[in-house]
Design a protein that fits this description.
alpha/beta; Alpha-lytic protease prodomain-like; Alpha-Beta Plaits; three-stranded mixed β-sheet; 11 helices; 16% strand; elongated
Length: 387
C-alpha cells in the first residue's frame, strides 16, 4: 500500500534531495494523517461518551490534536521546499527542524495533559461500560494507528525527515495509548479498580518521554550536531582515492536541512605540483563528493614539501614523540620556514577532546623533543580539537 501511494501521488519519488519531491512526501503524509485522525476522533468521542471512559475521550482529543500536527507538517514541508533567496542563501531546509520541534512539543504537552486527567480518574473513578462495539472500535483504531506509524516511518526514512519520523512516533504513541485503553476497559468491566486511570497514567508517561526524546533530537539538529562518522569516512575515502592527494584534514560539515549539506576540507598535495594540475584534481574530487554524497564541498589545497631533508627529519621526530605521548595525536600542514635569522617549524596538531595533556604541556613536550635532536628552530603550533 505504501509503495502504491508513493508511486501514485509523488513524481520522481527517488529524487529525495529535490525540495519539491520532499514537499510532496510531506503533503502525502499530512493529508493522509488528517483524514485518518478526523475519522478516529469522531469514532472515539462517540465511543468515549457512550462508555463513560476518560481514556477513550482523551484518545479522541489526542487524535484531534494530531490533525493540527498534520497541518503543521504540511506547512513545514512546504516552507522547507522553498528555494534559496537573497535572505536565505542556503535555502529553507531547516524549517523541517522547527516543524519537528513544534510537533514534539505538542506530543509532550498532550502527555502531560493526559497524565493530569488520568490522576484525577485514579482518585475519582467512574464506572466504564464495555460492549462488543466499543472493543471493536478500539481494535480498529489500534490497527489504523499502527498503519499510520508504518506509513510515516517509511516516508520519513525514505527522505531522511525528522518531521515525518516525529509524526510516525506520535502515531505509535496513539496505538499504545489505545491499546492500554482497551485493556483498561476490559479490566474495569470485571474488577472494581481504577484501571482506566492507571492505564491512562502509564500511557501518558510513555508519551511524555517520547515527546522529550524528539525535542532533544530536534534541538541537537537546530544547534548543529556533528554529522555521522560514516559521512566523514566517506569524504576522506573519496578525497584520498585521488592519486595526487597525500592526505586530508580539517573536514568541516554544516547542515541546512536534511537535503542541503555543505562543507570544506584541506587536501595535501606535493608542493612541486603545478597550480593548474592541483585545481583540476580538487575540482574533480568536489564533483565526485557531490555526486556520491550530495554534499557541496570546497577543497583547500595545502602544499607539502616532500624533498626537503630537514622537514622530513622533523616529521619523523614529531611522529615518534606524538606516538609516545598519545597515539591518537596527529599533525598536518608541516613546514619549515625562515623568519629572518630564525627557522620556525609550523604545523597543526589534532588533539582528541579527552587527551589528558594541556596545550601548554603538549607544546613543551614537542619543543623539548625537537631541541634534544639537535634542531635549532622555533615551534609554532595551531591546536585543532577533535570532537
Amino acid at each position: 500500500m505504501e509503495k502504491y501511494l508513493i508511486r501514485r501521488f509523488i513524481k520522481n519519488p527517488d529524487n529525495v534531495n529535490d525540495p519539491q519531491v520532499r514537499s510532496e512526501y510531506g503533503f502525502l503524509s499530512g493529508v493522509s494523517g488528517i483524514f485518518c485522525n478526523l475519522f478516529l476522533f469522531f469514532v472515539k468521542i462517540f465511543t468515549g461518551i457512550f462508555s463513560g471512559s476518560v481514556s477513550v475521550c482523551s484518545d479522541a482529543f489526542n487524535n484531534l490534536s494530531d490533525c493540527a500536527n498534520c497541518i503543521v507538517t504540511l506547512l513545514g514541508c512546504r516552507m522547507a521546499s522553498k528555494p534559496a533567496d537573497k535572505t536565505h542563501p542556503y535555502g529553507h531546509g531547516r524549517a523541517e527542524y522547527l516543524t519537528s520541534l513544534v510537533i514534539s512539543v505538542a506530543i509532550f504537552s498532550m502527555g502531560l495533559e493526559l497524565l493530569k486527567n488520568s490522576a484525577e480518574k485514579i482518585f475519582s473513578p467512574v464506572s466504564v461500560e464495555m460492549n462488543i462495539a466499543v472493543v471493536a472500535i478500539l481494535l480498529v483504531s489500534i490497527f489504523i494507528k499502527f498503519r499510520m506509524y508504518s506509513f510515516n516511518t517509511i516516508l520519513g526514512e525514505k527522505i531522511n525527515s525528522q518531521v515525518l519520523l516525529a509524526t510516525a512516533e506520535d502515531s505509535r504513541n496513539d496505538a499504545f495509548s489505545t491499546s492500554a485503553t482497551l485493556v483498561s476497559v476490559i479490566l474495569s468491566h470485571f474488577f472494581p479498580l481504577p484501571f482506566d486511570g492507571i492505564a491512562g497514567a502509564f500511557v501518558s508517561i510513555m508519551i511524555v518521554k517520547s515527546g522529550f526524546d524528539i525535542i532533544r533530537t530536534t534541538v541537537d539538529d537546530i544547534l548543529g550536531k556533528a554529522v555521522s562518522p560514516e559521512i566523514i569516512s566517506q569524504i576522506r575515502e573519496i578525497v584520498c582515492s585521488d592519486e595526487k592527494v597525500l592526505g586530508v584534514h580539517d573536514i568541516m560539515i554544516h547542515t541546512y536541512g536534511p537535503a542541503k549539506i555543505i562543507g570544506s576540507c584541506h587536501a595535501e598535495f606535493d608542493s612541486s605540483e603545478s597550480f593548474v594540475s592541483v585545481h583540476e584534481h580538487t575540482d574533480r574530487i568536489e564533483r565526485q563528493i557531490k555526486k556520491d554524497l550530495n554534499i557541496d564541498i570546497s577543497i583547500h589545497m595545502d602544499p607539502v614539501a616532500t624533498d626537503d631533508e630537514m622537514t622530513e627529519y622533523c616529521r619523523k621526530i614529531l611522529e615518534d614523540v606524538l606516538t609516545e605521548t598519545d597515539s591518537r595525536l596527529s599533525f598536518h600542514d608541516l613546514r619549515l620556514v625562515s623568519h629572518g635569522a630564525e627557522n620556525v617549524l609550523i604545523f597543526d596538531l589534532s588533539v582528541p577532546d579527552d587527551v589528558k595533556f594541556s596545550e601548554k604541556e603538549l607544546h613543551s613536550i614537542i619543543e623539548n623533543a625537537i631541541a634534544e635532536n639537535g634542531i635549532n628552530c622555533g615551534i609554532s603550533v595551531t591546536f585543532d580539537r577533535v570532537f
